[in-house]
């Protein structure tokens, strides 16, 4: 894969500016950069979903397997088994071959074209190892611990963790020679993550991975692609992520030394130009020298390198607009199951008190997100009741980011009667949106940027009860810390699903609901870290 002088501008923001890079066959590459730098956008360019403004990206005749951050299945009524089988299109190719045989037997006028297509399809069947394909699929199913119950489930009913597992299994079975993986470890349990790690290490193809899971990257990659949001350039570093960070730190240290030297030279030229301008009209030599220095000054200013911007966090007025009920939420004897499935919960009961910070934990597939959907009325209990206090104002953050209006800008999404435009601009800075970035349309944002907009919008509603479902899934570690600082100041009631210890620790959690047991316990960092390891990094 080779990119030459690629340039892309989305809305008012430049993503790539004369950026070039080359990746060799069999390279395992981690793609890094801050949220919004253009990591997911690069995948869209490779897939042909986003056209470059200029430059070229050459990928040859690669067979691409793509895992997006937001996994959606075209037909939600397919079973997992049907979806996996369709991931290697052997049946589709055989059907087309039968059609070609029929057309040839009918003495078609397009004999040469049909024979050429038949040869191409036969070659594709060979690449797909059609005679051994079922054994390959069964081995992947076994290694990823996809049981019969899950195989018979409809893909539209899967939890976030189950979706990730099934989608990755389908991609691996599809046998591409170029893998594009966008946050592949989100939701994966530890054993599945180990299998995927080992599979990718030995994978006979090129792999590009966007991931905030540093341990995962270091075990797989031999190169790092750094997309610089300041310069809009792309650079390839040999080695793992740890080696890249060391090299980047050295480069930034040297860059700061260069900038300081450039600034000294500019200041010296500015002083001389000012002195020449103030000289008497008869001092022709000084005037002439001043003009010469002025030309050099403009060149030096044009060549001055850019520093990374550093922004100060502002104090946010996020106090709820009114005091909540003493018991904002009461769940009594809740029982629920999906059609033809076993109960996820049976006679589950708990109450929240005003201002409480309450965490839900459990292994993937135990119904954490489902419980939030039941509380929000998006699903209906099989039995039991869910009641809110009369003064409970709810704001809900779902993994699907339904709160966002994608056809509007970031700024339009967060506009709120409680805040002036200037206050909103400052608050958006707390969520790492600065200057003209706030006028970007939401539909062109990366998943991480969308998550930040949704979390900002949620806090600005000034509700006294926040419900958050895995709010850090798409955020890099530095961004998680910044967002956690904002939510740590919230005084209302908080109901949270998360296994991210560093984020949770900022929120002041008091109690935990453990699923599927339905047990309520005092907050335990040790137990949270256990589920963090079981469900892996978010």
Q: Trace the largest sheet across and list its strands.
A: 5-6-7-3-8-9
Distance between the terminal alpha carbons, to the nearest Å?
29 Å
User: What is Rg?
Assistant: 28 Å
Shape: flat
- The average pLDDT score comes to 86
Which superfamily, in CATH terms, is the homologous superfamily of the largest domain?
P-loop containing nucleotide triphosphate hydrolases
Number of helices: 18
Number of strands: 18
CATH domain class of the largest domain: Alpha Beta
Q: What structural class do helix, strand and pairing data support?
A: alpha/beta
Task: Name its key features.
18 strands; 6-stranded mixed β-sheet; Rossmann fold; 3 domains; 19% strand
Commentary on this structure:
The chain has 538 residues and is α/β, with parallel strands linked by helices. It folds into three domains: 2-244, Rossmann fold (3-Layer(aba) Sandwich); 245-303; 329-535, Rossmann fold (3-Layer(aba) Sandwich). Helix content is 41%, strand content 19%. The protein has helices spanning 39-47, 80-86, 90-105, 111-127, 133-143, 148-151, 160-173, 190-201, 214-220, 241-278, 284-303, 368-375, 410-414, 421-430, 447-460, 477-488, 501-504, 525-535; strands at 2-10, 13-22, 28-32, 54-58, 64-67, 178-182, 206-210, 223-227, 234-238, 329-336, 345-352, 357-362, 383-388, 394-397, 465-469, 493-497, 511-515, 519-522. A six-stranded mixed sheet has the order 5-6-7-3-8-9, sandwiched between helices. Helix 3 runs antiparallel to helix 4 and helix 10 runs antiparallel to helix 11. The mean pLDDT is 86.
């Amino acid at each position: 894969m080779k990119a030459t002088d690629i340039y892309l501008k989305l809305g008012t923001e430049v993503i790539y500016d004369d950026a070039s890079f080359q990746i060799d066959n069999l390279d395992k590459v981690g793609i890094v950069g801050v949220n919004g730098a253009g990591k997911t956008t690069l995948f869209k360019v490779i897939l042909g979903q986003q056209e470059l403004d200029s430059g070229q990206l050459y990928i040859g005749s690669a067979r691409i397997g793509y895992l997006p951050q937001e996994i959606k299945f075209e037909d939600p009524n397919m079973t997992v088994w049907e979806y996996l089988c369709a991931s290697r299109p052997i049946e589709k190719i055989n059907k087309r071959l039968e059609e070609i045989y029929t057309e040839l037997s009918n003495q078609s006028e397009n004999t040469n074209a049909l024979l050429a297509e038949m040869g191409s399809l036969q070659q594709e069947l060979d690449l797909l190892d059609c005679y051994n394909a079922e054994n390959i699929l069964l081995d992947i199913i076994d290694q990823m611990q996809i049981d019969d119950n899950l195989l018979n489930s409809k893909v539209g009913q899967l939890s976030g963790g189950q979706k990730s597992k099934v989608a990755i299994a389908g991609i691996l079975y599809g046998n591409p020679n170029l893998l594009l993986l966008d946050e592949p470890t989100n939701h994966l349990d530890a054993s599945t993550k180990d299998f995927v790690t080992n599979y990718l290490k030995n994978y006979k193809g090129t792999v590009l991975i966007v991931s905030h899971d540093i341990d995962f990257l270091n075990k797989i990659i031999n190169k790092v692609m750094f997309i610089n949001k300041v310069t809009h350039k792309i650079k390839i570093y040999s080695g793992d992520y740890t080696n890249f960070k060391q090299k980047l730190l050295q480069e930034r240290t040297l860059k700061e030394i260069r900038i300081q030297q450039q600034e000294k030279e500019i200041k010296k030229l500015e002083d001389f130009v000012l002195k020449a301008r103030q000289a008497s009209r008869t001092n022709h030599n000084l005037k002439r020298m001043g003009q010469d220095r002025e030309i050099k000054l403009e060149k030096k200013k044009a060549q001055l390198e850019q520093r990374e911007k550093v922004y100060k966090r502002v104090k946010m007025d996020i106090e709820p607009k009114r005091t909540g009920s003493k018991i904002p939420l009461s769940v009594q004897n809740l029982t629920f199951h999906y059609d033809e499935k076993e109960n996820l919960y049976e006679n589950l009961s708990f109450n929240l008190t005003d201002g409480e910070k309450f965490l839900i934990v459990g292994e993937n597939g135990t119904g954490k997100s489902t419980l939030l959907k039941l509380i929000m009325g998006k699903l209906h209990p099989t039995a039991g009741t869910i009641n809110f206090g009369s003064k409970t104002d709810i704001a809900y953050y779902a993994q699907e980011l339904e709160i966002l209006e994608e056809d509007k800008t970031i700024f339009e999404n967060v506009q709120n009667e409680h805040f002036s435009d200037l206050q909103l601009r400052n608050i958006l800075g707390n969520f790492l949106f600065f200057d003209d970035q706030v006028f970007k349309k939401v539909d062109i944002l990366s998943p991480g940027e969308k998550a930040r907009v949704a979390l900002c919008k949620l806090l600005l509603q000034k509700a006294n009860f926040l419900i958050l479902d895995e709010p850090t899934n798409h955020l890099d570690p530095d961004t998680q810390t910044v967002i956690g600082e904002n939510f740590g100041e919230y005084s209302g009631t908080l109901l949270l699903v998360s296994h991210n210890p560093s984020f949770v620790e900022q929120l002041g959690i008091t109690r935990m609901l453990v699923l599927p047991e339905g047990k309520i316990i005092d907050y335990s960092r040790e137990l949270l870290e256990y589920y963090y390891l079981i469900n892996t990094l978010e």
